[in-house]
Write a structure and sequence with these properties.
elongated, three-stranded antiparallel beta sheet, Gyrase A, domain 2, 2 helices, 70 residues, alpha+beta
Amino acid sequence: MTRFTPLDGPYRFEIEFDATHPVAMTTAIPDVEQVGLRRVAFELSSMKLSIHCFRAVTALADGSLEKSYG
């Protein structure tokens, strides 16, 4: 079995949304910053923290969208 050496941090994520209002919601999370009109980014020291932050960003972004239009 092949063993892989884990990558060292920091780990940077950039997420682009299809609208601007999720950006306003997700920048309330510590370490998340706006880097474009519809894009946020964060950089954390461990993958565990990065995954927790990613899940928080996606949950807030999902909550900021209308469930149905019209």
